[in-house]
Amino acid sequence: MFNVGENVFLRKITMIITGHVVAVYPTHLELDHAAWVADTGRYTRAVATGEFNEVEVYPVDLIIKVPLNDLVDGFVAPWPLPAMQI
Fold first, then answer.
1. Where do the domains of the chain lie, and which CATH numbers do they carry?
2. Predicted TM-score (pTM) above 0.90
3. What letter does residue 55 receive in the DSSP assignment?
4. Residues 6+ apart with CB under 8 A from 10
5. How many helices (H) and strands (E) does the chain have?
6. In this structure, are residues 36 and 42 in contact, taking their beta carbons and an 8 Å threshold?
7. Spacing of C-alpha 52 from chain mean position
8. Has residue 59 got a pLDDT over 90?
């Protein structure tokens, strides 16, 4: 599915998370450099460019655990991860 070292865009049932994969488990991923994307704006533009209308970032060195049981879809992000709140 995803590999350590990849930057990912994950669409969950109720939210979107971006981040850098630091560990992969059968039930969850662990990410650093993570962000919650509160508003993608136009979705097609957002997934193509990584430009979002509203982003809340986690502290860079905080490892977050993202369960996979409610993953709708996701992909390896071809653009730099969001690094600041907008």
1. 7-76 (2.30.30)
2. yes
3. E
4. 16, 17, 18, 19, 29, 66, 71, 74
5. 1, 6
6. no
7. 12
8. yes
